[in-house]
Every structure is written in C-alpha cells, then in structure tokens.
C-alpha cells in the first residue's frame, strides 16, 4: 500500500554525562500498514517509547530512515505537519493528554486548528466523536474531562487523533490504567477502527495478553532491538527467543511449561553487552543448553531482523542452530 509507515535501520543514540553513549534504539526495521495492528512489546526501558516518539517525529533519529507512503519523514515544518496528519499519537488520558480546562469539543478540534483545517469544524468533531463511540456526539461537546468516565476520556483522546483522518495510530499503553471492563471496550474500539475504517495501529505495550487480544503481528523488543517478530499467535504460542520464552512463561495457560525467572536486571542502554545483548540474562546460557553456540553468543551479534515479511523470526544463535539442524 502507499500508506505504509516504514522504519529502516532506525537508531536513536544520545550522549550521557561522562562521555558514554546510550543506544536507546539500536537498529530497528518496522512496517505498519493500514488495516493491521502491530504490537511492540517489551519491558519498560527496552526502548519502545523512544521508538514510538521517533516514529512520530517527536524525537530525532540519529541514524536510519523513517518514511510514510515512501516519503521520508522530513525535518521541515510543512513536511512534518503533513506526516503528522497521517500518523497520529494516542496517549493514555491519565498521562495528561486532556487539558482539564478544555471542553471535549475544544480538545477534539485542537488538531484541526493546528493543521489549519477550517471547513465544517463541528461536523468533523461530531464525526470523530461518533467514530470513537461517543454518541450522540453533540451531547459531549460542552463536557469537561472531569465530568466523564475514564473510558469516555480515553475515547475523547482517540477522537482527537481520528479527527485528522490519519492512516496510522501509534498508541502508547492505550489502556494500561483503565479498569478491566473499560479496557475491553477501548480494545474493541481499536479493532473496529481497523476493520471498518482500515486504520493501522502500532500498539506499544508491556502486556502480552493485550497484544494477543488485539494485534495481528508482534515485535518483541529488548535493549533497543527487535529480537523476535511474527504473527502474534505464532510468537505467543511457540515463542523462540529465550527472552520471549521468559516473558511468555509467566502468562496464564503458558505454552512454556515452567515460569522462567530472568537473571539480573535490564542493562543500561549505554552498557549494551557485546555478542548477544541478552547473554548475561539468558536462561539457555545459564542452564548449559546454549553450550554448542556459546562462542557465538559471546562474540557475535545475532543481528537485526529485517522488516517483518509475515514469517516468524528470532535473533538468536541457538534458535538458528536448532532450525538449521
Ligand atoms: Fe541466549 Fe545465545 Fe540466543 Fe543470545 S544468542 S538469546 S545468549 S542462546
């Protein structure tokens, strides 16, 4: 499609006091097309929020390329504005996405005003609210955030993105702080927008259950890299990378028989281990199962997974050796 968001060899590095460099995003290839939901999952600190902010043009990439519909994400104000109409951010409301002093109408119309879209503002606002499931929309125009439920506020935030008729939404933990019942509603809204309106979404989450219930594809991120990717059902029912296996092992009804407790802490992005970045925590190394490939685990980066072409892949020497056997 001509409306695909693409990232190639994306890198975000920044200098730290003391002369060290943090590699928050360390070579990521990613595609998000209209009509599909891609989950980006990993622990906090793995770089997924930095990746999202960079895809939105909120943070500069220090390497690699981002494009929408083949057009590179430009630095000029005009190019960035055109891009931002197509690729919209959905935040969680409790993070302060809604201004408490603005009515619902003002909150949703804000995007139109920023983009200088003046024709039929009330009609566009009403349409966006209705698509976000706030009906009849006019009833919400003059309401303030504090008069709404948590779920309604999250719908207003989504309407504020939909009003620009984007092709892709980037949703950072869209339901993390909502009640279970409301979470289901918001997730089915995202699914309906995908199915009825052909919207694409990148959903950033640490919650694999959420990814399972909503995504078509999943990318598992560890220390700035995607270490496993593929169709969500395959990745979560037959995880291959030791890191994914550990994450999946603690889910209810996990296909991994025993819970796996990872050794140590997630290292700092300025101290990414050489060889395989997961090695210091890898349960296959600790148990001795990785012995036949240990030299490579220590000395050779398993590399970057290319753009997800629909096959199930993991960046791990042991997985590669087992599949070749
Ligand atoms: Fe573990 Fe080696 Fe695979 Fe890295 S490459 S995840 S250290 S088995």
From TrEMBL:
Which GO BP terms, alphabetically? peptide transport; transmembrane transport
Does the keyword field hold Nucleotide-binding? yes
State the protein's name.
ATP-binding cassette domain-containing protein
Q: Does the keyword Nucleotide-binding apply?
A: yes
- Organism equals Glycomyces albidus
Q: Name one GO molecular function term.
A: ATP binding
Under NCBIfam families, the record lists: oligo_HPY
> Which UniProt keywords are present, listed alphabetically?
ATP-binding, Nucleotide-binding, Transport
């Amino acid at each position: 499609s001509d409306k695909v968001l693409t990232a190639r060899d994306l890198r975000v590095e920044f200098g730290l006091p003391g002369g060290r460099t943090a590699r928050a995003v360390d070579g990521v290839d990613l595609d998000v097309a209209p009509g599909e939901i891609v989950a980006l999952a990993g622990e906090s600190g793995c770089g997924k929020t930095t990746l999202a902010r960079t895809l939105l043009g909120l943070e500069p990439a220090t390497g690699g390329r981002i494009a929408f519909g083949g057009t590179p994400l430009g630095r000029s104000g005009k190019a960035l504005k055109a891009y931002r109409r197509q690729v919209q951010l959905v935040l969680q409301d409790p993070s302060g996405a809604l201004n408490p002093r603005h009515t619902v109408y003002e909150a949703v119309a804000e995007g139109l005003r920023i983009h200088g879209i003046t024709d039929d503002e009330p009609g566009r606002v009403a349409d966006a609210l209705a698509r976000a499931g706030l009906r009849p929309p006019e009833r919400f125009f003059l309401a303030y955030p504090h008069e709404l439920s948590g779920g309604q506020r999250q719908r207003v935030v989504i309407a504020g993105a939909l009003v620009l008729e984007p092709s892709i939404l980037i949703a950072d933990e869209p339901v993390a702080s909502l009640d279970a019942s409301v979470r289901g509603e918001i997730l089915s809204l995202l699914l309906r927008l995908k199915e009825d309106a052909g919207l694409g979404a990148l959903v950033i989450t640490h919650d694999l259950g959420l990814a399972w219930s909503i995504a078509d594809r999943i990318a598992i991120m560890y220390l700035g890299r995607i270490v496993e990717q593929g169709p969500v059902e395959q990745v979560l029912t037959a995880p291959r990378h030791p890191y994914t296996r550990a994450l999946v092992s603690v889910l209810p009804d996990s296909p991994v028989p025993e819970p796996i407790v990872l050794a140590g802490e997630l290292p700092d992005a300025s101290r990414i281990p050489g060889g395989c970045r997961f090695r210091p925590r890898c349960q296959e190394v600790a148990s001795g199962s990785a012995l036949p490939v240990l030299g490579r685990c220590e000395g050779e980066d398993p590399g970057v997974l290319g753009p997800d072409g629909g096959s199930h892949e993991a960046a791990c020497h042991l997985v590669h050796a087992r599949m070749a056997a």
